[in-house]
Amino acid sequence: MSSEAVFIQVGALAEGFAPHSHTLEQQDLAGLELAFCFAAGETVNCRFNDDHTLCWGALRVDYRATSIRPGILFIDFLDPQCANGSITLVCDRQQGNFTAVYGQLPDEPQVRLDAFSRVEQGLPLTAVNVQLRFGRLDQSAAALPQLTDELIGMRNLYTYSPTERYEHIYLNDNFYAWQCLDGVEQGLADVDRCHYVKVAEKLYLFVWREKIVPTLGVVLIDLQGMRTDGKILGYQGSDFNVLSNFAVGAHAQILNITRYPLA
C-alpha cells in the first residue's frame, strides 16, 4: 500500500511547477496607460513604465502581464496597500471592460483556527479573502463582466508541465473538486470555494480559495484555445514571512460534461 499523500506549502508547489511550465510569455506593456473605472465610482489610473513595473495610482510595483487572446490582458501584482494581498486585472480591451480580483491571505492566527471552530463561529472554511470588482476601461460604455455558471458540470484535465497534471470538476456555483494526477501533490484532492466570471465567449476567469494550506488561485480558462494562464498566491513556507506569487499555465482538455436531470 502506498503512503498517504501530504499537503505541501505553496513555495514547494511553485518549485514543482517551475521546470518546463506551460506559462505564457510576458507582455511588454511599456508606455500603455489605462484608466480603471470601477462600477462603484472609483477610478485608478495605471501607467506601465516598462516590461516589469507599473504605477497603480501613485504606487510603483512589479507586475506580470500576459495575453491569452488578442485584446485580453492578464495583469498581476502584489497589492502595495494590503499585507499579504494581490491584485489581478483581467482586461478586455475590445469590449472595454475589466474584472479586478483583490485577494488577501490570512495571517498566522487565522490560519491556525481549526475548521470546527470556524464552523462554530459562522466563518467560511477558508480564511483566504477575495473581492471581485467590475468596471470599464477608459470611460467606455461597455457592459460589465458577469458571474457565470457555464463551467458547472465540466470535468477538465490540465497539464501544467511534463510532470504536473490536475483534474478539476466544477460542481456548483460555490465549489469545485480537484485532484493531482501527477506531480508534487500526486494523490492529493479536495473540494474548495471558487468563483467564475465570463470574460468572453468560451473564456472564463476562475478563482479559487483553498482552506487547508492558504492558497489563492486566479486563472483564465480559454476553451477555444484549450489552454489556461494565471497565478497562484500563497506563503513560501510555514513561517508566514515570505509570499510566493507564481505564474501557472496549462494545456486544457474537457474529459466530460455532467448535466443533471430536472428534479
From TrEMBL:
<feature type="domain" description="Molybdenum cofactor biosynthesis protein F N-terminal">
    <location>
        <begin position="6"/>
        <end position="107"/>
    </location>
</feature>
<feature type="domain" description="MoaF C-terminal">
    <location>
        <begin position="146"/>
        <end position="257"/>
    </location>
</feature>
<protein>
    <submittedName>
        <fullName>Molybdenum cofactor biosynthesis protein F</fullName>
    </submittedName>
</protein>
<dbReference type="InterPro" id="IPR012674">
    <property type="entry name" value="Calycin"/>
</dbReference>
<dbReference type="InterPro" id="IPR035348">
    <property type="entry name" value="MoaF_C"/>
</dbReference>
<dbReference type="Pfam" id="PF17409">
    <property type="entry name" value="MoaF_C"/>
</dbReference>
<dbReference type="Pfam" id="PF10703">
    <property type="entry name" value="MoaF"/>
</dbReference>
<dbReference type="InterPro" id="IPR024724">
    <property type="entry name" value="MoaF_N"/>
</dbReference>
